[in-house]
Design brief:
By secondary structure, the chain is α/β, with parallel strands linked by helices. It has a single domain, classed as 2-enoyl-CoA Hydratase, Chain A, domain 1. It has nine helices and eleven strands. It has helices spanning 31-62, 111-124, 142-157, 176-179, 208-214, 243-273, 295-300, 310-321, 340-348; strands at 76-82, 89-96, 128-137, 139-141, 165-174, 186-189, 194-196, 292-294, 306-307, 330-336, 374-376. α4 (176-179) links the parallel β5 and β6 (186-189). α2 packs parallel to α3 (142-157).
Length: 382
């Protein structure tokens, strides 16, 4: 007997729900995790640097009265260039690029500071028997060149630590580059080295004509008629008649000093080297008119002693210093020591870089200061 029944008008029973199978989800990428980890690491590193800088600053302030002050100037350490397993050493001091007294690195030291400190360190080291001045420079500032020249003379003429300085010229040792080479005991140049360029240069620009065209009128208040000497804002009829002679007098005086330095250095070297070196030619001043000379031409004029390369300079340094050509000597140089505070400053200065547009002309033109005297070979000048 069928007991099932349905009430009249009742809805039919609902069908069971159909469950559709879901497609498997693709594995979630881990790129965001890697990015998050990198960001966290950078934040932690930044916090560590800030903390370390703060600790260093506080320790430095707190130790000012507890410890003696550090010597001013570059802090240098010795670096081995060539280890010949010898007790004697030859120090190599490099002058590369424009000779300047302006700051050239983040440590606040200039080329002059570093060169003088290296010469002084080599002079005081009893194991250093000779110094090689490695020059590759077109020259530079008059005063900066003279500072290095005097430092070299001081090393050679020191009664207690006097040591011979041998110059090894690179592709260019002109003007101020030759000025600092002239006091050296021996000068080695490659036959194709560009050297000489004995002379002085000073530049300025007169832009008054341009100012007149665009309607700009300068107003100058001065205490004397020569106070605005070399100013580019004056028209030609406003320049006092004696100004040109005064400026030329400064040039001539500095030029005479250049020739005196060359004559004094080469004569002293020839006297010390006896018959081995080259004496100055009697007419060498005829070629001291700013012209550049090849190494071969300089040898004939007595401005250098030998044609050769760096190894020839090393051999000569061993011979003059008494080490001997057949004996060995280690080659060393001196590099700056950067302390922790200077390391931290590198991060603080990274955001202040010059963002200006720079035009690549195929060469690095020196930035000359208006009205400053230079011992400089400047082939790009008119």
């Amino acid at each position: 007997m069928d007991n099932s029944f349905s009430s009249p008008g009742a809805p039919p029973p609902a069908a069971p729900p159909v469950i559709m199978p879901q497609a498997p989800r693709p594995p979630r990428g881990r790129g965001w995790m890697i990015c998050a980890i990198i960001v966290i690491v950078l934040l932690c590193f930044s916090l560590f640097l800030n903390f370390a800088q703060s600790v260093y600053h506080n320790m430095h302030l707190g130790s000012n009265f507890a410890q003696p002050a550090r010597d001013a100037g570059p802090q240098l350490e010795e670096v081995m260039l060539k280890d010949n397993n010898a007790s004697d050493k030859i120090a190599v001091v490099t002058v590369d690029g424009i000779i300047t007294s302006h700051t050239t690195d983040d440590s606040g030291n200039s080329m002059v500071d570093i060169t003088k400190a290296a010469l002084e360190k080599a002079k005081k080291d009893p194991d250093v028997k000779a110094i090689i001045l490695k020059v590759d420079s077109p020259g530079g500032e008059v005063l900066a060149s003279d500072d290095i020249y005097r430092a070299i003379r001081k090393v050679e003429n020191d009664p207690r630590h006097g040591k011979p300085v041998i110059c090894s010229m690179g592709s260019l040792a002109a003007s101020g580059g030759y000025y600092i080479s002239s006091p050296c005991r021996w000068i080695v140049a490659n036959p194709l080295t560009l050297t000489g360029s004995i002379g002085v240069i000073m530049e300025t620009i007169n832009y008054r004509g341009l100012m007149d065209k665009i309607g700009v009128a300068p107003y100058v208040f001065k205490s004397g008629k020569y106070k605005d000497m070399l100013s580019g804002m004056r028209s030609t009829n406003e320049i006092p008649p004696g100004e040109h002679a005064m400026v030329q007098g400064l040039i001539d005086q500095t030029y005479d000093q250049f020739k005196h330095v060359v004559a004094q250095g080469r004569d002293a070297a020839h006297e010390a080297n006896k018959d081995q070196g080259e004496p100055l030619a009697s007419d060498w001043t005829n070629y001291a008119d700013g012209r550049v000379l090849s190494g071969d031409q300089a040898l004939h004029l007595g401005l250098v002693d030998q044609l050769g390369d760096f190894q020839d300079a090393v051999d000569k340094a061993k011979e003059i210093s008494g080490i001997g050509k057949t004996n060995k000597a280690n080659l060393v140089e001196y590099q700056e020591i950067y302390n922790f505070s200077q390391f931290l400053q590198m991060f603080g200065q990274s955001g202040s870089a010059d963002k200006g547009v720079k035009l690549d002309l195929g060469f690095d033109a020196p930035k000359l200061e208006m009205g400053e005297l230079y011992f400089l070979y400047l082939p790009v000048a008119d």
